[in-house]
Design brief:
The complex is a heterodimer. By secondary structure, chain A is mostly helical. Helix content of chain A is 82%, strand content 0%. Classes of the chains: A mainly alpha, B alpha/beta. Chain B: This is Zinc import ATP-binding protein ZnuC.
């Protein structure tokens, strides 16, 4: 009997792996105002699922390929006439629509689309766990290695150039890391909830911290608490696991915001 | 004199529009060069080309190998979702021991700011922190892109005095942009006037006439500023040619008041010989 024989243990480990990678990455998504970028990449993943089933390749490879293509397309097209939000809106919904149409062509294959839209963390196997942790550690290493360069590029592209950093290369690093996280997370939380896991923990961490590094660490801690709390809650109340994780994260965000509001109000009356 | 940056016959696009045409420019070690010109004349484009953020579509940019650039941007909007203290900001992109961060802030005339959030600083404090960070790179070339924008008169005067002190202490070259046509530093070794192309460039003349201008613009800044008036009364057609006369095509044109009624140059007499 090993720990991995329990589906709850596997689900928890899978959720932790995704959150550890999503936390620092999510901070950059928030700082750079790329919230819809996560959405667009995640929606494109459905097209990846359809292609993977059609060509009988691994779902992970199919999703990774399409998510990467989407990420590079957005990076390349940005700043060429259309606003970033318009561009992401067009690409995101088109990719989702084409993905759904492509899935309908797959005759003889029964696709549980709900599993990809909302994920099925309780069905995570040992191989999935290996892929998730492999991808998560890769993304963590990449972001840790480029951390300072990414920060300077985020603050100001010209400041980066003056320090000998190419902000476009850093943007590419970020988009590749984002594509990897989406590809490994699709099994766990599904397309719809990936973007929320990227954004809610950093947003909840923001009022509690004073430095970028602290924000990434606190976001990771909030993510871990959401995974453990959400899965336990799902078990106790018999609720869907993926959405329960996001609900806990949203509640923590609410508490942090209220706490910050109270502290500001008290600070003003006390001063 | 060691050449730090040389730009030869460069044209630079900003998106689909041509921001600069046929620009020759250079800056040498230790000299102060000021770029002036009206809005949209390509001043920031020239700065970005010097830094390497923009590549010219024609012509060439040569930088001294290993050139270290300290850059103070025109404005730095920090997203409110990005928490960052002054001490942490100074340590980007290279980590900085806290003791050194405190020392640098002390030198910049803004002690006690180390643990403040960047977003909470006043305009003057912010610019001094930006300057302190630029100096941490121990630059060969310090670039200031309208760095006093948003500062009041005493604030910008104090800022320019600090830059003069830095240049004397470190011997780095300084490249400054101003869109205030009438105010440039008396200590500028050269002034480059841009309007899509280099209209004219040269040493600010040592002119004793019109002392009322110095009283207006020079005294408030401890004599560090001088007057440089240049009326842009000409426009350009789509090819960047002048529609009416104004010294255009004079690539090596020094301003002399008697030669050009449109140009008045006034500078504090230089104590040091050129």
């Amino acid at each position: 009997m090993s720990l991995l024989d329990s589906f709850m243990a596997r689900a928890t480990l899978a959720g932790l792996g995704v959150m550890l990678a999503a936390a620092p990455l999510g901070c950059f998504v928030v700082w750079r105002r790329m919230a819809y970028f996560g959405d667009a990449t995640a929606h494109a993943a459905i097209l990846g699922v359809a292609l993977a089933l059609g060509f009988e390749i691994s779902i992970f490879v199919g999703v990774l390929a399409v998510a990467l293509a989407m990420a590079v397309t957005v990076s390349t097209l940005s700043g060429r006439g259309y606003g970033m939000d318009t561009l992401l809106g067009v690409l995101s919904h088109s990719a989702l629509a084409f993905g759904l149409v492509a899935v309908s062509f797959l005759q003889g294959v029964r696709v549980d689309l709900m599993a990809y839209l909302f994920g099925d963390i309780l069905a995570v196997g040992r191989m999935d766990l290996a892929i998730i942790w492999g991808g998560a550690l890769l993304v963590l290493a990449l972001v840790a290695w480029r951390w300072s360069a990414l920060l300077v590029s985020t603050l100001n592209p010209d400041l980066a150039h003056a320090s000998g950093i190419d902000p476009r290369r850093e943007q590419l690093v970020l988009t590749i890391a984002l594509a990897v996280v989406v590809a490994v997370a699709i099994k766990v939380v599904g397309v719809i909830l990936i973007a929320s896991l990227l954004i809610i923990p950093p947003a909840a961490a923001r009022p509690l911290v004073r430095t970028p590094e602290a924000m990434a660490l606190v976001a990771a801690a909030i993510g871990v608490a959401s995974v453990i709390g959400g899965l336990q809650g799902a078990l106790i109340f018999d609720t869907p696991a993926g959405p329960s994780i996001v609900c806990v994260a949203a509640l923590i965000f609410l508490l942090a915001s209220i706490g910050d509001g109270l502290r500001n109000a008290l600070g003003k009356t006390g001063a | 004199m060691e050449r730090l940056v040389e730009i030869a016959d460069a044209s630079v696009h900003q998106g689909a529009t041509v921001a600069l045409t046929g620009v020759d420019f250079h800056i040498d070690r230790g000299e102060i060069v000021t770029v002036v010109g009206p809005n949209g004349s390509g001043k920031s484009t020239l700065m970005k080309t010097v830094i390497g953020a923009l590549k010219p579509s024609a012509g060439a940019v040569k930088r001294k190998p290993g050139l270290r650039i300290g850059y103070v941007p025109q404005k730095l909007q920090i997203d409110p979702t990005l928490p960052i203290t002054v001490a942490r900001f100074l340590g980007l992109p290279r980590r900085l021991p806290r003791a050194q961060a405190l020392e640098v802030l002390e030198q910049a005339g803004v002690p006690d700011l180390a643990d403040r959030q960047m977003a909470r600083l006043s305009g003057g404090q912010f610019q001094r922190v930006l300057l302190a960070r630029a100096m941490l790179e121990d630059p060969d070339l310090l670039i200031l892109d309208e760095a006093t924008q948003g500062l009041d008169q005493p604030g910008s005067a104090a800022f320019y005095r600090q830059i003069e002190e830095i240049r004397q202490a470190k011997g780095c070259a300084v490249l400054m942009v101003s869109h205030e046509l009438h105010v440039v530093m008396a200590a500028s070794d050269r002034v480059v006037c841009l309007n899509g192309h280099v209209c004219c460039h040269g040493a600010p003349e040592i002119v004793a006439s019109a002392p009322e201008y110095r009283a207006l613009f020079g005294s408030g800044t401890g004599g560090a500023l001088a007057l440089y008036r240049h009326d842009h009364d000409h426009s350009h057609d789509s090819e960047g040619n002048c529609l009416h006369d104004h010294d255009c095509g004079h690539q090596d044109h020094d301003h002399t008041p008697k030669a050009d009624a449109n140009v008045t140059s006034l500078a504090k007499p230089h104590a040091e010989a050129h």
